Amino acid sequence: MRKLVLKFIFGFVILPLSIAGTLYYLNGRGFFNIQQIEVVLVDPVEGQRAYLKPLVEQLQTSLKPYEGVSLWNINLKTVVRTVKGNEWVNRVALKRAWPTTLQVHVQAHEVKLLYLGKNGKLLPVIGDGTFLDPVEAPQAPDVAVLDGEVFTKQSALRKKAVDVIEELPAEGSFSRKTVSEIRYDSKEGFWMTLIKTGIQVKIGEDQVALKAARVGKVVDYLESRQFDARVIDANLSKKVLVRLRKDP
């Protein structure tokens, strides 16, 4: 019985206290001081790495003051607030990699569209229609550009533009990848410009997926017959109207 009690005391009292004392000693000697902060991008969107690279570098710089702080004692909530102070950050999770590394896992907002400002810089637009900080053209993601001052102050309209282009297929003759610009008319709804041909497509505001499928077939047909179209009007109930460049 006595041996059992001694084992109990050693296993549940002396040993934990010894370990805690050792850790306390090492912590006081700076053994757990952060030497490296790793920023890890989580599921970055294809085609937006060039846009994110300088933002990640800026974030890395902003975290420098936490180097040298004990990994054991660091206030993780404060670090999270610092990271979330960057508007391009959607989600953040922290992980201690003992003994001296702090990992910052960041998921960025996906840029859905761009808006060309008066200063010539491009403003990224995210899913809810919010503008992010402007970027130079070489850094900008490869997405369609909103054209027109009507988008400047109306975040709801920018959100609608995002919803409309999201209804386009990811691949194909008429898809998100083939649209260079988006305009809006209060009477006719949304217009899109195709990158390859410059064709203007009137898509409206509703049943976009259905209309996009029709436009894709029309674009394929025009290319196969080598017709030079200038306008495709898909904002009709059951048909698509094509105006060739020679038409009035």
Q: Into which percent range does the helicity of residues fall?
A: 25-40%
CATH class of the largest domain, please? Alpha Beta
In total, how many beta strands? Answer: 11
Mean pLDDT: 87
Q: What fraction of the residues are assigned to beta strands by DSSP?
A: 15-25%
Q: Strand order across the biggest sheet?
A: 5-4-6-7-8-9-10-11
What's the domain count?
2
Distance between the termini: 105 Å
CATH architecture of the largest domain: 3-Layer(aba) Sandwich
Written description of the protein model:
The chain has 248 residues and is α/β, with parallel strands linked by helices. The chain folds into two domains: 73 residues, Roll (Ubiquitin-like (UB roll)); 132 residues, Rossmann fold (3-Layer(aba) Sandwich). The strands form two sheets. It has an eight-stranded mixed beta sheet with strand order 5-4-6-7-8-9-10-11, with helices on one face. A three-stranded mixed beta sheet has the order 1-3-2, with helices on one face. The longest helix is centred in the first third of the chain and has 27 residues. The radius of gyration is 28 Å and the shape is elongated.
